[in-house]
Amino acid sequence: MGASLDLVDVDSLLTAEEVDVRAAARRFADERLRPSLPEWFETGSIPARELAKELGALGFLGMHLTGYGCAGLGPVAYGLACLEIEAADSGMRSLVSVQGSLAMYAIWKYGSEEQKSVWLPRMSAGEAIGCFGLTEPDFGSNPAGMRTNARRDGSGDGDDWVLNGSKMWITNGSVADVAVVWARTDDGVRGFVVPTSTPGFSAPEIKQKMSLRASVTSELVLDDVRLPASAMLPEARGLSGPLGCLNEARFGIIFGAMGAARDCLETAIAYAGERIVFDKPLTSYQLTQAKLADMAVELNKGILLAVHLGRLKEKGTLRPEQVSVGKLNNVREAIAIARECRTILAANGISGEYPIMRHANNLESVLTYEGTSEVHQLVIGQALTGQSAFR
Ligand code: TGC
Ligand code: FAD
């Protein structure tokens, strides 16, 4: 956080290593990402392969994992990297979090030694891109209903698996080298490591997005995709497998959303200082200051919450409903901040010359993916009452 926005001295809660990681991420975001984002967002295309390699070289892919070329940093360092990258664009943070917290984490946590040694070093270096296929066209919030299935077939080379079905809204899908696909089997939901070159696999890109345009989003089509027995993730059984990965990615979003919010607020403060209305700078009016103060308070509270949850994660005590508190609050506040900042820039607020409308549009996706705000309210409601209201 820039010094003037860090009202409660969050920096004093950070280690020297965390501050260094944050500085490196901020430098990358400012120098490499920020200048190109207006164009990437407008054209709806990103140089995903180049970016993955650059992010890998900086150690940002799977940075909170250990071994296999991963940086082995703590959760707060990882969160701060997400914050700085999302200050540039939520789509860039998505690239990082889907790679590190979903695809790599699934293999790291539930994979065989062979799966780990084949994929993780290449993925941490950004030489191989991963995606994570859980959502289906008819099952987003309720992945338990998934129809994608995997059946055993002995007619090939031993005990093959054959996958059929489709996944929807999959980040990195069309640029991925490997897809972690969750499918129904006779033994419940299981995860599969699917090289995207496997016959029967295709990943058409989803177009006409009004949000997260600087990110690749795709359908995954699995049409008799034949895989060896060794493609199944041996240690993931049931829905707790994919949901365990979501905890990781949701954690990164708790920090990340505050990055988008901070960027909006910094932009609005700078703009209001220059903008003359009724003969005086916009910053000199009480109404403007009230808006700025309220937003800065929410930003500081959100970052404090993120760091606190990070410390719980470090200790190994972070519970899923606590992740839901962070994701619900910080994304909800980030989107409110983006919209309020837009009012300060007024007409200029809708222009692509400023990042605010881009952040606001992106945050609509962030509010929905990794569990909608309603899903997180229900997770918290269940923790409070002991009653599940999902069904
Ligand atoms: P439920 O019966 O409660 O649980 C089934 C099993 O899962 C376990 N479990 C968890 N395990 C780890 N972490 C969690 N957060 C968990 N929540 C539940 C649970 O203990 C049980 O285990 P077991 O061993 O007894 O079988 O499940 P449910 O069917 O009632 O659903 C619960 C609900 C609705 C909370 C869950 O389905 C959910 O979170 N839905 C939202 C789906 C979602 O978030 N999808 C995201 C897809 S990925 C994505 O969006 C990437 S966006 C790109 C980016 O990140 O940038
Ligand atoms: P639905 O589940 O159909 O929900 C519709 C509405 O109903 C929502 O408001 C929801 O909150 C509400 N609702 C649902 N259940 C209840 C209930 N019990 N009570 C009250 N209200 C309820 N998925 C992946 O697997 N991998 C990815 O990489 C990925 N990337 C994504 C990238 C983008 C840009 C987007 C937009 C989505 C991505 N997703 C991904 C999908 C995302 O996780 C889902 O969109 C999300 O889980 C919600 O599912 P849905 O869109 O089907 O909404």
TrEMBL record:
Residues 237-384 form the Acyl-CoA dehydrogenase/oxidase C-terminal domain. Residues 15-127 form the Acyl-CoA dehydrogenase/oxidase N-terminal domain. SUPFAM superfamilies: Acyl-CoA dehydrogenase C-terminal domain-like, Acyl-CoA dehydrogenase NM domain-like. Its EC number is 1.3.8.6. One of its GO terms (molecular function) is glutaryl-CoA dehydrogenase activity. InterPro entries: Acyl-CoA_Oxase/DH_mid-dom, Acyl-CoA_Oxase/DH_mid-dom_sf, AcylCo_DH-like_C, AcylCo_DH/oxidase_C, AcylCoA_DH/ox_N, AcylCoA_DH/ox_N_sf, AcylCoA_DH/oxidase_NM_dom_sf, Glutaryl-CoA_DH_mitochondrial. Its cofactor is FAD. Residues 131-225 form the Acyl-CoA oxidase/dehydrogenase middle domain. GO terms for biological process: fatty acid beta-oxidation using acyl-CoA dehydrogenase; fatty-acyl-CoA biosynthetic process. Keywords: FAD, Flavoprotein, Oxidoreductase, Transit peptide. Belongs to the acyl-CoA dehydrogenase family. This is Glutaryl-CoA dehydrogenase. It comes from Kribbella shirazensis.
